[in-house]
Design a protein that fits this description.
The chain has 423 residues and is an alpha/beta fold. Helices cover 40% and strands 19% of the residues.
Length: 423
């Protein structure tokens, strides 16, 4: 991979995009939708090859589910781009403005970040989502997916470029604003992360291993995203039926997603009532790894749950990405908060409670991008937040936090107008 050549093309693309109007970018994105629809059979055929190869190599079914595309997921990609088209273009938005005593006018306005690189695993829908968000916000994007999704990603990028170059784009399509790394060697990631002056920001999207590698290696700015050790705390005042339903949804709907819960904390005052019903709900579906107090309660159930084992210390604070969940009993909301802040990845946390004071304390003190009261952590998603799509879930505090939509791909600059002032 010639990183300099690729980045030079992307820089030219970003410079062109930065001057385009919202209407021009929307026309190009609409052309991309038509192209994806036209090339749907090719995309699905390429994805089928990737899925078959992944299964042959022994990839777990929860991860295969992230890799696989079908008509429903293609429809979702198209719908996401439509929502992005409908959103207000942030570029040029004046976020602040004032006049100095000396007569100068100062305006703070939104501008694109420039050349954005995303390094991600498995999910080929990220290819389309990341492109659309970057394009609408005036950024060029370098995509470096995983080898397991290479054929799918190539087919999607081919459809995107065809759309941008089509007559329907009316000459507004900027095909140089998207490039896919060839995924021939792990050295490509190193090249991207050390391309100072070429890549303006890099985003990792995947598991903890990938994210840590990017953070440790990068010389370009990084927005840390992804790994989700998410918790559900069942308070002493919780509606236990609600807690059971939220636990089921947050763990089992998509266990391989970063917003799935990995640990359930249960207040000791409701543990003897809640834990047996949780074990029954999870029976034959989710393995429960229990702390000693939890195990003692469940071992006295009749019939004895077959899906419960004693946890290892390493099970707490671990992202299983599978049908496995750690469970621990805590004394109160304060212990739950302390435990979460020690073991989480600052992603998404939830309390189920009917106590307003406890809910507000939990939201105020838990350190995470998204803190829920009485609803599933599975809602931490750009689409669910109304962004159409997301570039990732930022788990850091600087620049962006939580699901990253269009505005998260912008920065600001100051425009100062004067009439001859000197200092």
């Amino acid at each position: 991979m010639n990183i300099n050549e690729i980045c030079d093309k992307l820089r030219a693309g970003s410079d062109t995009l930065a001057l385009q109007t919202a209407a021009q970018k929307n026309i190009a994105l609409s052309a991309v939708i038509s192209s994806i629809e036209k090339m749907r059979p090719d995309i699905l055929a390429a994805n089928a090859e990737d899925v078959a190869a992944a299964r042959a190599k022994g990839m777990s079914e929860s991860l295969v589910e992230r890799l696989a595309l079908d008509d429903k997921k293609i429809n979702s990609i198209i719908e996401s781009i439509k929502i992005i088209i409908s959103q207000t273009d942030p570029i040029g938005e004046e976020t602040a403005g004032w006049k100095t005593p000396g007569g100068m006018t100062i305006r703070q306005v939104r501008v694109p970040l420039g050349v954005v690189a995303i390094i991600y695993e498995s999910r080929p829908n990220v290819t389309a989502d990341a492109f659309a968000l970057a394009y609408k916000s005036g950024n060029a994007i370098l995509l470096r997916g995983s080898s397991s999704a290479l054929k799918s990603n190539k087919a999607i990028v081919s459809a995107i470029k065809a759309g941008l170059e089509s007559k329907e784009a009316q000459g507004f399509g900027v095909a140089s604003a998207i490039e896919l790394a060839p995924c021939e060697s792990h050295d490509e990631v190193q090249e991207i992360l050390t391309a100072v002056g070429k890549v303006d920001v890099a985003l990792p999207r995947g598991g903890a291993k990938l994210i840590n590698m990017v953070v440790d290696t990068a010389k370009v700015p990084v927005i840390q995203t992804g790994a989700g050790v998410c918790h559900l705390y069942v308070d002493e005042s919780a509606n236990l039926e609600m807690a059971e339903n939220i636990a089921w949804n947050a763990k089992t709907q998509r266990p391989g997603a970063c917003n799935a819960i990995e640990c359930i904390l249960v207040n000791e005052k409701v543990a003897e009532e809640f834990l047996p019903r949780l074990a029954k709900r999870f029976e034959n579906k989710v393995q429960i790894r229990c702390d000693q107090k939890t195990f003692d309660i469940l071992s006295h159930c009749s019939p004895l749950p077959t899906n419960c084992t004693l946890a290892q210390e390493s099970d707490f604070g671990f992202e299983f990405l599978d049908m496995i969940c750690a469970v621990k009993i805590v004394a109160d909301v304060n212990e739950a908060i302390s435990y979460i802040n020690t073991h989480n990845t600052k992603h998404s946390e939830c309390i189920v409670t009917e106590n307003r004071a406890n809910s507000r304390l939990f939201q105020a003190k838990v350190d995470a991008a998204c803190v829920y009261v009485n609803s599933s952590t599975r809602f931490t998603d750009g689409g669910e937040f109304g962004f159409g799509a997301e570039l990732g879930i930022s788990t850091q505090k600087l620049h962006a936090r939580g699901p990253m939509g269009i505005k998260a791909l912008t920065t600001t600059k100051y425009l100062i107008d004067g009439d001859g002032q000197i200092r």
